[in-house]
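Milestone 3.1: sequence recovery, worked example.
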């Protein structure tokens, strides 16, 4: 695995040891960022089940200002720190060892506004996609936010989360990438 494009292009990334996480392959990662970017002019990303941090790191390399990495597996946390250090991105990142529900409460306290939300939970934990509802209800997403979910072929996600609508879905092997955005005219102040 490596950083595909942007400032940190070509830097190798470590995977989390053991079989607990499935890193997004470089090929899928490249496709994802071609759909949602490929580059960004600042903004805040949240990588909710960060694993090795590959998606968040890629977004930083491509111009996102800050990324908050949330992960509860200590080995994954260690890997994220190593990858950020290697990419010299520690100063643009925050890493939290917390479960996703608790982390969202903390984000709400800080009243963050997220531009890019990555959700790639462990495959059997389908209920985690419902956490998107909390981001929407608690007003943690900007009007132009992009929500990106990675999930298994058999998992059907809803067409909408609040005012965010499924705008694109692509299949890569047994992985589906689903992208949600607000439709024009759906913006709420």
């Amino acid at each position: 695995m490596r950083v595909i494009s942007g400032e940190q292009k070509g830097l190798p990334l470590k995977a989390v040891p053991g079989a607990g996480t499935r890193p997004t392959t470089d090929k899928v990662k490249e496709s994802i960022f071609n759909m949602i970017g490929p580059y960004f002019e600042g903004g805040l990303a949240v990588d909710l089940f960060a694993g090795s941090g590959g998606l968040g790191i890629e977004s930083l390399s491509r111009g996102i200002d800050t990324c908050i990495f949330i992960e509860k597996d200590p080995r994954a946390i260690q890997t994220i720190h190593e990858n950020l250090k290697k990419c010299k991105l520690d100063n643009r990142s925050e890493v939290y060892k917390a479960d996703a529900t608790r982390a969202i409460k903390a984000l709400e306290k800080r009243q963050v506004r997220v531009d890019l939300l990555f959700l790639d939970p462990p495959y059997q934990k389908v209920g985690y996609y419902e956490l998107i509802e909390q981001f929407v209800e608690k007003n943690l997403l900007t009007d132009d936010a992009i929500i990106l979910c990675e999930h298994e072929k058999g998992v059907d996600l809803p067409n909408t989360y609040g005012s965010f609508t499924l705008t694109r879905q692509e299949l890569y092997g047994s992985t589906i990438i689903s992208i949600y955005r607000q439709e024009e005219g759906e913006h709420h102040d």
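The chain has a mean pLDDT of 93. The first strand starts at residue 44 and ends at 47.
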